Bifunctional NAD(P)H-hydrate repair enzyme
Amino acid sequence: MELLTPAEMDRADLLTIAGGSSGFALMLHAGRHVAQAAMELAEPGPILVIAGPGNNGGDGLIAATELVALGRTVHVMLLGERDALKGDAAMAAREWKGPLLPFLTQSIGSPALIVDALFGSGLNRPVKDQALEIIEAVNHSGVPVLAVDLPSGINGATGAVMGAAIRARETVTFFRRKIGHLLLPGRLHCGKVRLVDIGIEPAVLDEIRPQAFENDPDLWLPDFPVPRADGHKYGRGHAVVVSGELSQTGAARLAARGALRAGAGLVTVASPRDALAVNAAALTAVMVRPVDTADELGAMLADRRFNAVGIGPGAGIGEATQGKVLAALAAGPAVVLDADALTSFAGQPEALFEAIKSTSNPQVVLTPHEGEFPRLFSDMSNKNPLRSKLERVRVAAQRSGAVVLLKGADTVVAAPDGRAAIACNAPPWLATAGSGDVLTGIIAGLLAQRVPAFEAACIGVWMHGEAACEAGPGLIAEDLTETLPAVHRRVYDELGVEY
Ligand SMILES: NC(=O)C1=CN([C@@H]2O[C@H](COP(=O)(O)OP(=O)(O)OC[C@H]3O[C@@H](n4cnc5c(N)ncnc54)[C@H](OP(=O)(O)O)[C@@H]3O)[C@@H](O)[C@H]2O)[C@@H](O)CC1
Ligand SMILES: Nc1ncnc2c1ncn2[C@@H]1O[C@H](COP(=O)(O)OP(=O)(O)O)[C@@H](O)[C@H]1O
Ligand SMILES: [K+]
C-alpha cells in the first residue's frame, strides 16, 4: 500500500475538499475513529486528551466530545489559547463544552488513557518548552497513550524524533500510513498503527502519484516467480555466487543455498581453486566451478545461461574483487553486489557507477548495511540528520543507476526512477552473522528467475523477514533457507496457486 508524506496527505485533503467535502467533515470522521479506538483501549477511568494548536488538536477535541457522549469522563488540556484556534480546529473547540485544564505536567494525573493530539503532520520544528515537558512527563507517567495521526514529536516524512516524542501504545492514522510510521525511530514510537477511512477517495492518489510503498505482497505479487507446469529447471535460471578464499567460503555457500531456495533452477559457486575442495565437500545441490580471476569469471559468464550473479559475501576486499565485479557487470547477467564487493570500491565509487550505467543489462542491486553505505555514498551516512533513510537511499539509487537496498530493521529499497519500498516485517533476531549473505543469495535467485531488479530486491527482503519470523527467536543464518519453503507456501496461498 502507498505511504504518504504529510505534504501528500495535505494534497489528499485539499483534493477531497475541492471534490465537495468539507475539512470539518474529515475532522469529524477522524475524531470519531479516535474515540472508537480510545473506547477499545481504555480501562475504566477518566481519559485525558492533550490537544495542540492545530488540526491534530481539533481531532482530539472531537474525540473528547464523542467520548463524553459515549459515557466516559474526559479531561482536556490545550496548548495555547482556545481563542487562538483557527478554522476546523476552532469549530472543533466549539463542540467541546467542558473545561480546559492548565497545560502543566500537574494536570496529567493518572488517567486510564491519554489521547495524544498535540502535533500531527504539521509539526514543523523541534518541540521545546511546555510541549517538551508535557511529552516527557507523559512518557514517564506509564499511562497508555493513543496517538492521533502520529505520536507527537515524530516527523511524518522522515520518522525522526524532533526534540522529544510520545511513545504510544497505539496510533490511529487516516487514509494512508505516513512514511514516519515505518521508518525508525518513528515506528518504535507508534505502537500498533490503526488505519481508518475518513472519507477520502483512493482516486485522489491518481493525481498525487505517491512513490513510496510498504514492502508487502500487494506491491509485487504479480512478479512473484511461480514455476510453470510445463517448465524445467533451465527455465528457472542459473545463478552464480562468487566464493572468497579458502578461509572465508561459508558466506558464499549461505548465499548459494539462499539462491536455490528462492527458486533458481540451478546454482553454481564460482570458487578459487584452492577453496574448491572445501566448497565441493560442503555443497550438494549447488555446483562448483573453478574461477580464480576476473578474466576467468568473465569467460564463464560469456555463457548467457548464467543469468544472475551474486558477489560480495566473503569475497575479500581489494582489486581482485573489484575486477570480478567489473567483469560480471560487463558480461551482462543480472548482478547483486553486497559486502566486500561494495567495500572494494570505497573511495572510488564512480568507477562502480560508471560500470553499472554502461552494463547492457540494467538489473543491478546493491545491498549495503549502514556501515557499507557511506563507503559508496560518503555524504549520505546516517550521521546526516537532515536526510531520512528514504531520501538517502533514493539519492543513492539515482546516483549509482542501480536498485539500492539499505539494510536494517526498516530496510529501504529504492529504484533510480524514485520508486521506494520500506519493510517492517523483519524481527530483531534477524540481525545475526550471515543473514545478509542469505539475502544476497535470495535476490540472486529471484533475478535468475527474471524478476526485475526492484521487485527482486523487494521480494527478497520480504521473504527474508518472513523466513526469520517463521524460524523464531534463536535463529541462525542457516535456518533462513530452511524456513523459506513455508514462506513460498504463504505467497502461493495469496496467489491462489495450488501446491
Ligand atoms: N490532512 C488531512 O487530510 C487531515 C488532517 N487531520 C489532522 O490534522 C493534522 C494536521 O493539522 P495541522 O496541519 O494543523 O498541523 P498540526 O499537526 O496540528 O500542528 C500544527 C500546529 O502546531 C504548531 N507547531 C508545529 N510544530 C510545533 C512545535 N515544535 N512546537 C510548538 N508548536 C508547533 C503549529 O504552529 P505554528 O507553526 O503556526 O507556530 C500549528 O499551530 C493531522 O495530523 C491530522 O491529525 C484530520 O483532521 C483529518 C484530515
Ligand atoms: N534490528 C533489526 N531488526 C530486523 N532486522 C535487522 C535488524 N538489524 C539488522 N537486520 C537485518 O539483518 C540482516 C543483516 O545483514 P548484514 O548486516 O549484511 O549481516 P551479515 O554481513 O552478517 O550477513 C539484514 O537483512 C538486516 O536488514
Ligand atoms: K499526535
User: Anything to note?
Assistant: The chain has two domains: 2-210, 217-495.
